[in-house]
Design goal:
This protein is α+β, with helices and mostly antiparallel strands. The protein contains eight helices and eight strands; from the N terminus they run H-H-H-H-E-H-H-H-E-H-E-E-E-E-E-E. The protein folds into two domains: about 40 residues; about 140 residues, Roll (FAS1 domain). The radius of gyration is 28 Å and the shape is globular. The termini are far apart.
C-alpha cells in the first residue's frame, strides 16, 4: 500500500479519528452514569402539606379550592396538622353550582368553614384514631380547627368520619407524611352545621 497518496492518508486519518471519537463517547457515557448515580443517592426532601396537595392529581379539585384561600400559606408554613383531604370524586359529589359559588371571593368565609372541617391541629395517625375509637366504646369525637366535631367510628375494619349534618365518609389512604402534618384521604366532603 502506498501511503504517499493523499487519499490513503485521508482514509487512515478518518479511521483513526472515528476510533478516537468512539472511545471519547464511551468515556462521556460513563461520566453521565456516575453523575446520575450521585443524584439518585441523595435523599428526597419530604414535601409540605401544600406541596403534596398541589402536585397529586387525586387532589386536583381540593387544590383548586385551597388556592382561593389563605390555606396555601397555612399548609406551607404552619402546623402540624392532620388533614382529612377529600379526593376529586368526593368534591365532584357537590353540585357544580355550589363549587362555583365556593370559589367566589364573597364566599371565602363559607369555603374556609368547610376546609376547617377537614383539619385537626396536631398529628393523628390511623392507629391513633383506631385506639381512640376502641377506648371510647366504638366512636370518638375529633375536634376540627373550625370547632366542628367529627365522629370517627369503624365498620368492617374501615374508619368512617361523620359530620354534624350526618354525612359519612370513609378514610381511604392513611398516614401520608408531610413535613408539617399527616394527610388521610376521605371519600366525602365534611360539612359544618349551619
Amino acid at each position: 500500500m502506498n501511503f504517499k497518496n493523499p487519499v490513503h492518508i485521508l482514509i487512515i486519518f478518518s479511521f483513526l479519528l472515528c476510533i478516537s471519537c468512539a472511545e471519547t463517547k464511551k468515556e462521556n457515557t460513563n461520566d453521565k452514569l456516575l453523575a446520575q448515580a450521585d443524584v439518585l443517592s441523595k435523599e428526597e426532601k419530604t414535601p409540605t402539606i401544600i406541596e403534596l396537595i398541589s402536585t397529586d392529581i387525586g387532589f386536583e379539585k381540593l387544590n383548586e379550592l385551597i388556592q382561593t384561600t389563605d390555606f396555601t400559606t397555612k399548609f406551607e408554613k404552619e402546623g402540624p396538622y392532620t388533614i382529612f383531604a377529600p379526593l376529586n370524586g368526593a368534591i365532584n359529589k357537590l353540585s357544580p353550582k355550589m363549587l362555583d359559588d365556593l370559589k367566589k371571593p364573597e364566599n371565602a368565609a363559607e369555603l374556609t368553614k368547610i376546609i376547617n372541617c377537614h383539619i385537626i391541629p396536631g398529628l393523628i395517625n390511623k392507629q391513633d384514631i383506631i385506639t381512640a375509637i376502641n377506648e371510647n366504646g366504638g366512636s370518638v369525637k375529633l375536634k376540627t380547627l373550625g370547632g366542628t366535631k367529627l365522629i370517627a367510628s369503624m365498620k368492617s375494619g374501615r374508619i368512617y368520619l361523620i359530620d354534624k349534618t350526618g354525612n359519612a365518609g370513609r378514610l381511604m389512604v392513611n398516614d401520608i407524611e408531610a413535613t408539617n402534618g399527616i394527610i388521610h384521604t376521605i371519600e366525602s366532603v365534611m360539612m359544618p352545621k349551619n
